Amino acid sequence: MLFNSFPFLFVFLPASLLLHWLVERFRPDWRLPLLVLLSFAFYGYWDWRLLPLLVLSVGLNWSVAELFQRARRGWLVIGAICLNLLVLAIFKYAAFLIEVLDLLPGVDLAKPSIVLPLGISFFTFHHVMYMTDLKAGRAPRYGLLQYAFYIAFFPQVLAGPLVRWSEVMHQLDERPYLRHDAAERIARGLMLLVVGLAKKVFLGDPLSEYVNPVYAAAAAGKAISVVEAWQAVLGFTFQIYFDFSGYTDMALGLALLFGIVLPQNFDVPYRAVSLQDFWRRWHMTLSRFLRDYLYVAMGGNRHGLAVQLLALFATMALGGLWHGAGWTFIAWGVAHGVGLGAGVLWRRAGLKMPNVAGWILTFVFVMLTWILFRAGTFDVALKMFKALFGFAEMGRGFKWRSIAIAALVAMIGPTAWAFVHRLPPWRSIAVAFAVVLVIVLFKIGDDANYEFIYFQF
After folding, report:
1. Which of 4, 292, 293, 443 has the most CB atoms around its CB within 10 Å?
2. pLDDT computed for residue 135 by the predictor
3. What global pTM score does this model have?
């Protein structure tokens, strides 16, 4: 049940909002159980056989947290974190590990057929954040329903944003529909939902037609022209942004409808003037997680330059592995680790760079490394790089219109959050958003691409 599907938009969402309003109005003490029930129902719609995994994950981690509160034994939390990561490794990396072992002489293991549960990376990282903060004395005790809400709240359970307990749990004590700005919040939430749908349907999905055929041809061993390579590389650069940021906008908007403010996840990343600046703007909640729970834990910048560079390299390599169980994802993370390390050395040397030059270098670097992210194999990536740099026929028929429009919106326009919060409460604006929604719904019913890129992670 995707956010851009008719079952969600016409059945689940209206029914959930009606139930939430009734409960909040007449039985506010039922609000938390209802949100948890709706979240489990939403997750179970994908595949009811995977729902016990989420329920068991919530129950076991909460039980460990309860035991830790009583016994204060650090090994309980460490064991829970290791177990969470082990479960993630089994579902997400078992096949990759066997592929690595098969490289050894005389080893020929059969790859297991394991279904990857949607959202397992995201709810696992939520467990890790809470457990780590609990052990450090930063996180308080929560009841089972509170903890289940934190892990499974349906707008963010499948693809984020990664939410810290401190950012949302206090909001459960509010009466969202009794706030003085309740109507404004609902309006902003609906606008964010429409903007996210529009970004996905009108900007992200059309670019997939520029990208997928080229990468499919490269994977099939066909020749790729220079024009096709540039079209696919530029197309994917903006496709992944509008696909993922569009999902995030929908998640933030849906959460607002239920009285919850989630953290923003994008801040015009393609305007970044350095790689460090890019990671402060792209998938911001993941960047914070990698910084606070990996980079800092490895020593960060507190133990000298060598440790800092090694921590950056390892953090980004693991970040690449998190995105996908494959060598190209690791290479993508390593490339960003090396790039960030080069930035550290540049700043340590006291060197400076004009913002325009920094923006060009950053955009080109990010664009080129997206090839590793998208390719799937090094053979495909190498073929794309060769064509990109002229080691192929020139070709013709560069499809630039959708790319140009996407580039203008991505680089010039504000974030969706800033955009909807700047709009005045005019009736004409409401009518305009209603018209856009109708057009989006027609597009969804016609030929929309329902899949989101980040669901595979």
Report:
1. 4
2. 94
3. 0.92
